[in-house]
Hints:
Shape: globular
Helix content: 25-40%
Radius of gyration: 37 Å
Oligomer: single chain
Order of helices and strands: HHEHEEHEHEEEEHEHEHH
CATH architecture of the domain at 122-347: 3-Layer(aba) Sandwich
Strand content: 5-15%
Low-confidence stretches: 1-39, 56-114
Distance between the termini: 62 Å
Strand order of the largest sheet: 4-1-5-10-6-9
Number of helices: 9
Structural class: alpha/beta
CATH superfamily of the domain at 122-347: Zn-dependent exopeptidases
Number of strands: 10
Largest sheet: 6 strands, mixed
CATH class of the domain at 122-347: Alpha Beta
Amino acid sequence: MTRTTRRPAGPIDPDRTDPDGAAPGRTRGPGREHRPRRSKLLRSVTVLAVLAPLGLAGWLGWRTVGSPDRSVPAASAAGPGTPAAAPPGGASPTADPTAATGTPAPGTTPGGTADPAFPLAVPTSTALAGRTVLLDPGHNTGNSAHTAEINRKVDIGNARKECDTTGTSTNSGYSEAEYSLDVVHRARAILAARGATVVLVHDGDRPWGPCIDERARIGNTAHADAAVSVHGDGGPANGSGFHVIMPAKVVAGKADTAAIVDPSHRLGLLLRDSFHAATGEPYADYVASKGLDTRSDLGGLNLSTVPKVFIECGNMRNPADARRMTDPQWRQQAAQGIADALTSFLTTR
């Protein structure tokens, strides 16, 4: 706030008279009649009368345009009842969307931790409101340090298989586990912004795993409307491209995919087309047919009771695919393709 110093009502007169009418150091001569100095007082009043309106007008003009070190709060500028503008980047002014309810908000993961590079989005659309999506980042960066645990066999219905594997990597060492978690974080942000509740099988917060049977169980327990497991393949170096894996009909032991084969096939077709459109990645030329494969030996599919597919986003052993998969911009496109396919699956029939 700028403080205004009050000035005397008029200019200081060096010849000002004392209360008796005599100037300092002077005496009134005999017989002189004392006359009030009306002319100077009148001039002072006149000056004030002219300057006061001008000063007031200037002050009002300064308030209108604002001083260089003064800003108007967003809420005031927007007017009563109008929310303040969102901060840059679309972030919400609300610090914790779960604080009021104590339950996971759209885009959260039970017990998981958010990647600060991809903050949990506040929904800007209701397209997927009320829908639950499971995203399964393949493997885990800690698996290589827990070989005894991941080599343990688990029941997948028609066979017993290793709990998990280490996954593959590019020749330069960028691992499949890193890639899959990064793309899942990006896809989660997009889906959450569309109103979906997104559940992650893990969020980089576990030392290893989970096992393939637990990965399926997490999606079943969440009653997910759709699930996608994200991977990178480790094929021959001269092979390139992506492919989508759909569940075969398996009815054996703990496995019964009869109810999910058809919806999973529809999800697989949408994912193939959407991923290809978003990334430009060609269909795999070394495996599958036209970007689609059907398998009965994957525990994550065999034990699922919700529509689920795998996507091998490219061949990490192929130099051209590896170059794309290590590019953050391309990974964003990959996430967009996955999110768009899930959105189409959940909003169309």
